[in-house]
């Protein structure tokens, strides 16, 4: 599937995904950045003995992209207590 970035799309390579993402960003005038990721090298280090390692051709085990202007995550300082509740 070339150049079609839509829900459920699958890509043969990460380069194909990047190409579709760049095209989508250009057409819709948005910028996506990496929100969080786990590399294959990291994932392979965390495998238990006997588990099959991920292919080296892959770049990420997990990748979350988010809109650059979508705000930022604010860590909660709440302790979960509600002192004035009965």
Question: What does this 3D model show about the protein?
Answer:
The protein has a two-stranded antiparallel ribbon with strand order 1-2. It is flat and about 55 Å long. It has 86 residues and is α+β, with helices and mostly antiparallel strands. It contains two helices and two strands. The longest helix is centred in the N-terminal third of the chain and has 15 residues, at 14-28. It is 24% helix and 19% strand. The chain has a domain at 14-67.
Question: What's the arrangement of secondary structure elements?
Answer:
Blueprint: H1 14-28, E1 32-39, H2 40-45, E2 60-67
Antiparallel strand pairs: 1-2
Question: What labels describe this entry?
Answer:
single chain, 86 residues, alpha+beta, two-stranded antiparallel sheet, 2 helices, flat
Short description:
This protein has two helices and two strands.
Helix content: 10-25%
Mean pLDDT: 86
Radius of gyration: 19 Å
Structural class given helices, strands, pairing?
alpha+beta
From the spread of the alpha carbons, the general shape counts as flat
Weakly predicted, low-confidence segments: none
- Beta-strand percentage range: 15-25%
Q: Would you list the SSEs in sequence order as H and E?
A: HEHE
Q: Helical element count?
A: 2
């Amino acid at each position: 599937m070339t150049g079609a970035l839509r829900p459920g799309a699958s890509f043969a390579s990460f380069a194909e995904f990047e190409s579709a993402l760049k095209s989508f960003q250009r057409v819709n005038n948005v910028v996506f950045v990496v929100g969080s990721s786990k590399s294959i090298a990291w994932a392979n280090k965390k495998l238990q003995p006997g588990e099959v390692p991920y292919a080296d051709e892959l770049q990420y085990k997990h990748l979350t992209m988010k809109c650059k202007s979508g705000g930022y995550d604010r860590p909660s300082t709440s302790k979960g207590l509600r002192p004035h509740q009965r």
